[in-house]
Design a protein that fits this description.
This protein is mostly helical and 98 residues long. It has one domain. 34% of the residues lie in helices and 8% in strands. It has three helices and two strands. Strands 1-2 form a two-stranded antiparallel ribbon. It is globular, with a radius of gyration of 13 Å.
């Protein structure tokens, strides 16, 4: 994996949160008191726990790079940059030339 702006997956306080190389900002989802399961719901993406995750993402300084990374990677699980898998797929399709 290249180190020029590419994310590396780490698993410490939050499952598979991308750590952006060269960034010194801690993602909002990795702060104390935040439940990592809010980003990975068991049943659906419109429940109260994902609403909390989306709200936290909204104020995160890494929201856009996180969403871009997940869309580029084709993430099919979880909330990334306040976007669910269907929204990430739409974002990914918008990048592709017609």
């Amino acid at each position: 994996m290249s180190t020029s702006g590419i994310a590396i997956l780490t698993r410490d306080t939050s499952p598979y949160v991308p750590t952006f190389l060269g960034e010194h900002t801690r993602p909002a989802c990795k702060t104390a008191g935040v439940d990592p399961e809010w980003w990975f719901p068991v049943s659906h993406y419109n429940g109260p726990t994902t609403a909390k995750a989306r709200l936290i993402c909204t104020g995160c300084p890494l929201r856009e790079p996180c969403a871009d990374w997940a869309a580029d990677r084709g993430e099919q699980w979880g909330i990334w940059g306040a976007l669910d898998p269907a929204q990430l797929a739409t974002r990914r399709k918008q990048w592709r030339p017609l």
